[in-house]
Amino acid sequence: MGKSKDLATMASDGFTFSGAVTHTGTVTGVGGVKSVQLFATAGTHTYTKPSGVSKVRVTVTGGGGGGGGHGAANDYGAGGGAGGTSIKLIDVTGISTVTVNVGAAGTSGSAGMGNGGNGSGSSFGSHATGNGGAGGKHGNIGPVTGGSGGSASGGHINITGGDGNNGVDNDYPPSGTNYRPTWGQGGASYWGGGGRGGVYNVQPQDGKAYGSGGGGASAATPSYSGGAGVSGVVFVEEFS
Fold this sequence. Notes:
The protein is an all-beta fold. The chain has one helix spanning about 5-10; strands at about 35-40, 45-50, 55-60, 85-90, 95-100, 120-125, 130, 150-155, 155-160, 235-240. The chain has one domain. A 5-stranded antiparallel sheet has the order 1-10-3-4-9, with no helix packed on it. A 5-stranded antiparallel sheet has the order 2-5-6-7-8, with no helix packed on it. Strand 6 and strand 7 (about 130) form a beta hairpin. Residues about 1-10 and about 15-30 have low confidence and may be disordered.
């Protein structure tokens, strides 16, 4: 069970309230979100605090892993794992700038025996880190494991990214064309779902949301690469 706080203390921590709230004392320091900054391009950036901002809430998500290639006949690649997410409320009274890193997406596993690439981590200075998700394995590797979701650290809330679904090595249909249900769904991140895995002659999808994993490929004609992951993100909400 979480530790209770009175409304005045919560207000001083930067929380806002909606609906019917009753309080017999004086509430000070209540303020909504003043502004936001979004860092969604992989690479290194600089966060600059605007004037009048005393607290920020950061949501930091690592890059998603790529889906695995199909492998060989009757094989299905695994999905990439999603990046982890760290959420933290930070007092920035004495801070003017912070280095922001946004993790790159994991690359798609090449058609045939190519494993998906790992996503890389995102961070907001030393305050919060979301690590990247791992790439999915190709379909001819034996145990075709989905990529593990990335861990997270430093936040008040740290969320491990969703794992990619496993693929399969040697899934033989009873007869005729292999229209089996799809394998290799990409892992879901804090922001949304991963890419769908391929089935027969349908190409796998890239990840859908920030930090999500790409889908694994199916053995079809033509053969497909896995789906790419999606780069991470750092979202900063600013409070007066």
